Structures are given as C-alpha cells and as structure tokens.
Amino acid sequence: MRKIESKITNLKQIRDIARRLRLKGKVIVTTNGCFDLIHLGHVKNLQKARLLGDVLIVGINSDSSARKNKGGDKPITSHKERSRIVAALESVDYVLIFDQTDPSLWLKLIKPDIHVKGRDRKMEDIKERWAVKEGGGKVILLPLVKGVSTTKIINRIKKLKP
Q: Average pLDDT of the chain?
C-alpha cells in the first residue's frame, strides 16, 4: 500500500505524472470538490469514478477557494486534513490542492480522458466542462447517494443538544 503523502502532489508534479501516464496509454479520470466531512456519497462516487479509467486524480479546493465557493462557514476541516483523508482512500491515486474557484487551470494541464461530477449539477453549470472538452476529454455525471450530503450532516449536528 502506498503512503498517503506520496499521493498528494502539486501542479508541476501532476502535469508530469499525467504526461507519463498518457505515454503508457493509461486512461486518466479526474474529479474535484471540497470534500469536507467525507461521507458515503463521496466514497461511492470516488469508487465509481476510479472504475472508469486506470488512474483517478482528485482536485481538492484549498480553504480559501472552498470559502469562496461554499460560503464563509466552510470548510469545516482544513485542506491539509481533507487531502490526507481523500488520499487515504484506496480508489484515489493522486490528490492535488488547488486555489482557484474553478478547476479549469489544472484540468487544462492534465487533459483528463474523463472528468466526473455528481448529478447535483446540470452539465451547463459545470464551469470546467470546456477545459475538459478542449483537452479531448468528456464529462460524466454520476448519480448521488440519496439522503447523504455534507450540508445534511452539518444540519444534523447543529440540532444535537450538548
């Protein structure tokens, strides 16, 4: 089993890794998100995403980009913690923390064959779809696990009495 730290990479490293993988004919799958308070929906969709190709690269929003995308009270956990938790999952090959609110920059460098998002969005709402298509890849929407979300978990916790 690979060490968690060896899965966490930076932009230059992941660009070089993707180049080497492509030369070997590997199918590269990517996804991205905040991944705050990992739950069953995250785990199942990462497993499904990994089955679509040979390598799964997960982009994780930095704390500042997560706040811009999700609001001031998120993320609950730091990007350092979130990246280590996601990297610990067997289905994940590499993790990249990115500062932008839109993942298009690193997706243009990686040029994934497949980029996966959840069906909580419509295709036209996925900002990065153009970057993926320009690189020759396609975007696939995976079904969500019913009844599970970070927001629902947070709301349940808020209702608990101390």
A: 92
